[in-house]
Every structure is written in structure tokens, then in C-alpha cells.
Write a structure and sequence with these properties.
Number of helices: 3
Distance between the termini: 14 Å
Shape: elongated
Strand order of the largest sheet: 1-2-3
Radius of gyration: 16 Å
Number of strands: 3
Order of helices and strands: EEEHHH
């Protein structure tokens, strides 16, 4: 389910790619907000990574794990919604 590659592009679309097919799906405003939040989280995590403080580094690793979990859940959600809205999309990806 989550093994397909999904890339969010700046042009307000999600492109799901596979060697057999490419489909572009418009993003909702909520998708754009989610990507913006995740971008800010990633930026803040990179700042923490540069910190020499061990306590902050542990916090960074914990937050990074949480952020990765959120991103994975969001990717799975987008994949499921795509399959619901565009039933033949899943067939094209797996054919």
C-alpha cells in the first residue's frame, strides 16, 4: 500500500509515479497546509541537529521519529483517498 512513490510538487499537485503509469492529482488546501507544516518541522529539526547539546540532540531524534511517523501516516492517507476517488488509479499503478 505505502510502497508506491508519492511526491508532492510545488505546483499544487501530487504525482504518484511507477514505471508503468504517472497520474497527477490536484491537492486540496489542507494538503498544502500539511506539507507546509511538515516543511517547518523538518527545518526546525535540522536546526536542532546542529546543536552540540546532547539533550537537544535526543529531543531532535525523538521529534524526527514522530515527524517521520506523521509523514508516513499522511502518505498512507493520501494513497487511500486517491484510491477511493480514482479507483482505476490503483489498477494502473499495479499493472
Amino acid at each position: 500500500m505505502a510502497t508506491d512513490t508519492a511526491m508532492a510538487m510545488v505546483t499544487d499537485t501530487v504525482t504518484a509515479t511507477d514505471t508503468a503509469a504517472t497520474t497527477t492529482i490536484p491537492l486540496t488546501d489542507m494538503d498544502m497546509v500539511t506539507m507546509g507544516i511538515m516543511d517547518m518541522v523538518t527545518t526546525n529539526l535540522l536546526c536542532l541537529l546542529d546543536s552540540e547539546n546532547d539533550e537537544k540532540r535526543e529531543t531532535h531524534l525523538s521529534l524526527k521519529a514522530e515527524a517521520n511517523t506523521v509523514m508516513l501516516k499522511r502518505t498512507i492517507y493520501l494513497r487511500e483517498e486517491t484510491t477511493k476517488r480514482y479507483p482505476k488509479f490503483d489498477e494502473k499503478i499495479h499493472s
